[in-house]
């Protein structure tokens, strides 16, 4: 099955080719331009991954390119074209590129000056307005193509990243529970810690994907009349915030188990079996929210109550068992919130008019 990322990349390439080609055709056959490379070059600069970027940074590219045309015209008209004036144009362009309002695309000032002066400036060939029009045409074509040719939406990428981080966190719980069913060692603890660190990296990627999805909705004509899309973004963000909390509790749980490995005595078998079973179900609930599991919080409450009534349980074990139960209760609440947010997201997707 083709991934959303691959489809988006292919579409982006197609749109860029279309924009540059149309801009070149207009420059050659409509504007009869002496420098037909300016329009397609600016069109390339304005086809960004999202409509918002295309409009905002395309406007910066246009202003910067106009400034480059102006710099090259003034230098070529009054100082002529020589090695030192070519260097001066680049210097002026690079200095002007530091202006905050156009900083992201400011280098276009220098590159436009290079194109215009390097192509052979002629004082007998007035060109200022022609070049300004060509830049405007290239920018307009790039923006129009990005607006009209399937403007990108990144909801699917965001959903994939969010679901991936959920599955990975759940799988770590399952891996921990499998290990604790029989034995436990500090070697396993190190492996769990590495997995949790890797999840932190995944979480950063997931946040970036969610931010990209949010930006892809701005000024996007495909979302006209689809107010539910805003709710989906809030769901993604809430899921990731709760997953971040879950990872923190998971790390605390690993630290508690590491310290417990150095404590004398064995775990109580009854506590171990019931607590590990609950951890198994937590892992499955996070990795596969559609899977049915018994209510986790209620089982932890019963486990705590049953053991507190057990006079055979050594009193020195309760600090450890209490910490482990509390950690799972925090994580259980995270699981419930993640599942609720996912259900809301799925409901919004299945009922787009609500």
Please describe what this structure looks like.
- With 354 residues, the chain is mainly α.
- It folds into 2 domains: 4-148, no CATH class; 155-350, Putative aromatic acid exporter, C-terminal domain (Four Helix Bundle (Hemerythrin (Met), subunit A)).
- Helices cover 76% and strands 0% of the residues.
- It has 12 helices and no strands.
- It has helices at 4-30, 38-46, 51-78, 83-96, 107-118, 128-148, 155-182, 186-217, 228-260, 269-287, 296-308, 318-350.
- It is elongated, with a radius of gyration of 30 Å.
- It starts with a helix and ends with a helix.
* CATH topology grouping of the largest domain: Four Helix Bundle (Hemerythrin (Met), subunit A)
Beta-strand residue fraction:
under 5%
- Number of DSSP-assigned strands: 0
As a whole number of angstroms, the C-alpha radius of gyration is 30 Å
Rounded average pLDDT:
76
Features:
354 residues, 76% helix, 2 domains, Four Helix Bundle (Hemerythrin (Met), subunit A), mainly alpha
Write the layout of secondary structure elements.
Blueprint: H1 4-30, H2 38-46, H3 51-78, H4 83-96, H5 107-118, H6 128-148, H7 155-182, H8 186-217, H9 228-260, H10 269-287, H11 296-308, H12 318-350
Quick recap:
This protein is mainly alpha-helical and 354 residues long. Helix content is 76%, strand content 0%.
